[in-house]
Amino acid sequence: MRIYHDLKFKSQMFYGKSSFISILRVLFSDGSLAIVLYRITQFLFKYRLGFVGYFFQLLNKYLNGCVIGGKAEFDTGFVLMHPHGVIINSEVKGGKNIVIESGVVIGAARNGLPVEAPYLKNNIFIGSGAKILGGISIGNHVNIGANAVVLQNVPDNSTAVGVPARIIEKK
User: Which is nearest to 124 in space by CA: 170, 59, 163?
Assistant: First the structure.
């Protein structure tokens, strides 16, 4: 069911509507196959069928050029605009309406012994080539600029740009 909501959200973004025809058009657009394969992988890992889930994860890697960990959790409205080069760690947690462009890395970091992965809240846009690393939190209604390297928490209603990323408050 999350696949339908993801495609509906993407259709609303592209065409301003979520009719059957617009959802069908989005299904065959760039990135939608990657979303479908990720959701299948996520389902299989959730129900302890990870050995089959790895097959779909590899299929996603070879067909779409992206690696999304099977245990990564995103709520509805997960959209990959152009999946090539996207890498998302298995420990990443995300909320609703997260849009990701090509070449994005959302990864864990070892700051000591435990591995810490980012937590993304709701309504987030991540531009091409951005890197979000470590046990940080990305707030609600946030934009991450293209090629930004985010290493610190980003508060609600803001934009992160640059290397390393600096925070720009939205008005």
Answer: 170
* 109: containing domain: 2-169
Helix (H/G/I), strand (E/B), else coil: 92: coil
Peptide bond preceding 164 in cis form (omega within 30 of 0): yes
SS3 percent helix, strand, coil of the chain, rounded to 5, is 30, 25, 45
Q: Rounded to whole angstroms, how far apart are CA atoms 27 and 4?
A: 10
Q: 62-78 as b/e, with b when 16 or more CB fall inside 10 Å?
A: eebbbbbbbbbebbbbb
Q: Output the pTM of the full model.
A: 0.91
Residue ranges for the chain with pLDDT beneath 50: none
User: For residue 111, what pLDDT is reported?
Assistant: 64
Number of domains comprising the chain: 1
Question: 84 with 101: CB under 8 angstroms?
Answer: no
Residues 83, 103: contact at Cβ < 8 Å? no
CATH of the domain at 43: 2.160.10.10
147, 163 contact by CB (below 8 A): yes
